[in-house]
Design a protein that fits this description.
The strands form 3 sheets. Strands 10-7-9-8-12-13-11 form a 7-stranded antiparallel β-sheet. Strands 1, 2, 3, 4, 5 and 6 form a 6-stranded antiparallel β-sheet that branches. It has 2 domains: 109 residues, Uridine Diphospho-n-acetylenolpyruvylglucosamine Reductase, domain 3; 187 residues, Vanillyl-alcohol Oxidase, Chain A, domain 3. It has 11 helices and 15 strands. The longest helix has 12 residues. It is of the alpha+beta class.
Length: 373
């Protein structure tokens, strides 16, 4: 927030449904939207994979999730109302004030204060999951093949243990089946229990391998049918880090399908030897977005690669994160604490984020000729 700026919170949620659209107050959370749509047999068309966030916030970052083959959430918004810097209240859509609409979609709230949105919904469905483990190099082709509209929801994962880093992929698809759709449910006991396993990955390659084995093995076999809305009604708190000495950092790279193997190659060369601990990577499909001024997929679909890192909150970690030459850590006599040696002249070096964002999020800015699109 800028100095002397103001933060305004919308704490009066409102969802008005008309047909397969709904008008929603900006601060309404997605779990409140789901609760309003579910009794009517409807479901959000696109939202991120957690239901804690506000609808206008999702639009302002133009987030996306498991639904296919749609674009990001902004593609499902028909119109919005917002207050501009001069105090005027305006309506924006693809036909009315289209420039404002395009700039506000993914504009991080810098264009105006959004007060309400008109958003599209889709019929709720009963979905059966299917889990397929494949070589990571084959994932892009497999993901592209299910982006033809035949599969309403899908996502992918990669293995993260350093020994076989990014060698394997898991493609999860959801297919509609006949049957009574149960009322929407929230996070189950298994989701809450998974937090302990998720956080136990810190510095433990064995746990990372076991987690991958569970997700691709017994977890896949035990997964049953669920409603579309229930799949998205998951709170982010189930993966919350309660360690005050660490912080979570998300990286996201929007990779053209035909560049995905290049992304894997670069990630394998950089991430396993980096200082951060990678806990998870989720792969999502983002269809071409011709509307947003700051589009993630302006000229074709992208595989959104979302990486969750854990980093300790120390001076050592901050030095490494700034791209400076990090202090050297040595352990003496095995059980003694780490002793830090700081170089006199830290040398700048490219960070993980800088290298990979230049190569994959901004193809025109690629510095290495061998990866130029």
């Amino acid at each position: 927030m800028p100095r002397d700026g103001h933060a305004i919170t919308f704490d009066s949620p409102s969802v008005e449904v008309a047909g397969e659209t709904y008008r929603v107050q900006a601060g309404t959370r997605w779990h409140q939207v789901i609760a309003a749509l579910d009794p009517l047999g409807l479901s959000p068309k696109v939202m991120q994979s957690n239901a804690d966030f506000g609808v206008a916030s999702t639009f302002s970052v133009n987030a996306h999730g498991w639904p296919m083959p749609f674009g990001p959430m902004g593609s499902t918004v028909r119109s919005l109302r917002m207050v501009l810097a001069d105090g005027s209240l305006v309506t924006a859509s693809r036909t009315e004030n289209p420039d404002l609409f395009s700039a506000a979609m993914g504009g991080y709230g810098l264009i105006g204060l959004i007060t309400e949105l008109e958003v599209e919904a889709v019929p709720n469905q009963l979905l059966q999951p299917s889990f397929r483990t494949i070589p990571a190099a084959d994932f892009a082709a497999a993901f592209t093949a299910v982006a033809d509209g035949s599969v309403p929801m899908a996502y992918g994962r990669l293995n993260i243990d350093r020994e076989g880093f990014f060698d394997q992929a898991m493609l999860v698809t959801y297919t509609p089946i006949e049957g009574e759709i149960p009322p929407v449910t929230g996070s189950g006991l298994l989701s809450h229990a998974s937090r302990a396993i998720f956080r136990a990955q810190l510095g433990n390659e064995w746990v990372k391998r076991r987690r991958w084995g569970v997700e691709t093995g017994i977890g896949a076999r035990l997964a049953g049918a669920s409603s579309r809305s229930s799949l998205m009604n998951e709170p982010v708190i189930t993966l919350d880090d309660r360690d005050p000495t660490r912080t979570d950092i998300l990286h996201e790279y929007f990779v053209a399908p035909d560049r995905f193997t290049d992304f894997l190659t670069a990630a394998k060369a950089i991430i396993p030897g980096s200082y951060q601990e990678l806990f998870n990577i989720t792969l999502r499909w983002v269809a071409r977005d011709p509307t947003a001024m700051l589009a993630y997929a302006p000229d074709g679909p992208r595989i959104a690669s979302v990486l969750l890192f854990s980093q300790e909150m120390t001076a050592r970690a901050e030095v490494r994160n700034r791209g400076e030459n990090p202090p050297t850590a040595t352990r003496v006599a095995g059980s003694e604490p780490l002793k830090m040696i700081t170089p006199r002249r830290p040398l700048p070096q490219p960070s993980v984020a800088r290298c990979m964002i230049m190569s994959f999020a901004c193809p025109a800015a690629i510095a290495r000729p061998g990866l130029r699109r």
